[in-house]
């Protein structure tokens, strides 16, 4: 979509991991990220797949910010307050190889939301998670 | 996490029931770079990274493969000391563990992790 993603999420600099939102609609969003040497979770083999939690959280953050802007609501992205579940693969993310992040809204109740996310490429799923966010 | 100063494990204690460790969150930690510019807050995932670093003291080849019922109850700011306690659910053959993280006596986070192999033959 080539959106100004920083206007929808508070993450900056080294801790802004997602590059762009590729698609979004009422309940779904897809983002892209390119793992770099500056990322957290550096391991000898690449980026530890636990990073999928942050990728899903940031995609959700940008998506919630985008939705709120469209609804002309104040406030922006919230805080990760819980992880209901996550399945983490054993494959490290490769540096400089793009990955995609999908997130789907499962529950939206006042300031509380539940989102299901997945981090993947065409041939690999790095992990899935259901996260809970709160917008103060 | 040895190459970059994300967080520092100050010390740990390994026993038959689990492992405990202490981490600090200095203001110059890379976790705070851009998270967030106006209000530095430790990312929740950093605590998962600390947990994985800690269980690798018990078994260097172990990986976290699942997370269950994790709660992040309070924000963590710069220069806090985090006490991480991981308890094996079934002794050294366990592939599941519970954890809690406290700071100054306050519960910061809790939940359950699953691993790809047993924590191993612990030799405290």
Explain this structure to me?
The complex is a heterodimer of chains A (136) and B (124). Chain A has 136 residues and is mainly β. Chain A has one helix and eight strands. The longest helix of chain A has 19 residues. Chain A is globular. Chain B has one helix and six strands. Chain B has a six-stranded antiparallel sheet, covered by helices on one side. The radius of gyration of chain B is 14 Å and the shape is elongated. The relative contact order of chain B is 0.23. The mean pLDDT of chain B is 90. Classes of the chains: A mainly beta (136), B mainly beta (124). At the A-B interface, helix 1 and strand 5 of A face helix 1 and strand 3 of B.
How are the strands of the biggest sheet of chain A laid out side by side?
1-2-6-7-8-5
CATH superfamily of chain B: Hotdog Thioesterase
Form type of chain A: globular
State the secondary-structure class of chain A.
Answer: mainly beta
**SSE string of chain B:** EEHEEEE
What's the pLDDT, averaged over the residues of chain A?
Answer: 92
Distance between the termini of chain B: 23 Å
Distance between the termini of chain A: 28 Å
Q: Which parts of chain A are unreliable, with pLDDT below 50 for 5 consecutive residues or more? A: none
Which fold name fills CATH's third level, the topology of chain B? Thiol Ester Dehydrase, Chain A
Biggest interface reads: A-B, 29 and 33 residues
What would you say about this model in short?
The complex is a heterodimer of chains A (136) and B (124). Chain A is mainly beta and 136 residues long. Chain A has one helix spanning 52-70; strands spanning 18-24, 28-33, 42-43, 46-47, 79-88, 99-109, 112-120, 125-134.
Give the helix/strand layout.
The complex is a heterodimer of chains A (136) and B (124).
Chain A: E1 18-24, E2 28-33, E3 42-43, E4 46-47, H1 52-70, E5 79-88, E6 99-109, E7 112-120, E8 125-134
Antiparallel strand pairs in A: 1-2, 2-6, 3-4, 5-8, 6-7, 7-8
Chain B: E1 8-15, E2 18-24, H1 44-58, E3 64-72, E4 81-88, E5 96-103, E6 106-115
Antiparallel strand pairs in B: 1-2, 2-4, 3-6, 4-5, 5-6
């Amino acid at each position: 979509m080539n959106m100004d993603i920083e206007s929808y999420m508070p993450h900056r600099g080294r801790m802004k991991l997602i590059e762009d939102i590729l698609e979004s609609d009422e309940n779904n969003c897809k983002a892209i990220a390119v793992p770099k040497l500056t990322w957290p979770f550096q391991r000898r083999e690449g980026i530890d797949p636990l990073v999928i939690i942050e990728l899903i959280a940031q995609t959700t953050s940008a998506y919630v910010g985008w939705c709120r802007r469209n609804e002309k609501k104040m406030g922006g992205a919230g805080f990760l307050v819980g992880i209901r579940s996550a399945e983490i693969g054993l494959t490290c993310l490769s540096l400089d190889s793009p990955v995609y992040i999908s997130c789907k809204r499962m529950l939206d109740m006042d300031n509380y939301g539940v989102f299901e996310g997945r981090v993947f490429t065409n041939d690999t799923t790095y992990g899935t998670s259901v996260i809970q966010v709160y917008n103060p | 996490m040895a190459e970059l100063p994300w967080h520092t494990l100050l010390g740990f204690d390994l026993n038959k029931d689990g492992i405990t460790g202490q981490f600090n969150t200095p203001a110059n930690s890379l976790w705070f770079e851009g998270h967030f510019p106006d209000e530095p807050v430790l990312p929740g995932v950093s605590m998962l990274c600390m947990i994985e670093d800690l269980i690798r003291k018990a078994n260097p080849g172990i990986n976290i493969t699942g997370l269950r019922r994790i709660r992040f109850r309070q924000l963590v700011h710069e220069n806090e000391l985090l006490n991480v306690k991981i308890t094996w659910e079934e002794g050294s053959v366990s592939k599941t563990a519970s954890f809690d993280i406290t700071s100054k006596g306050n519960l910061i986070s809790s939940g359950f992790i699953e691993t790809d192999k047993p924590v191993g033959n612990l030799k405290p």
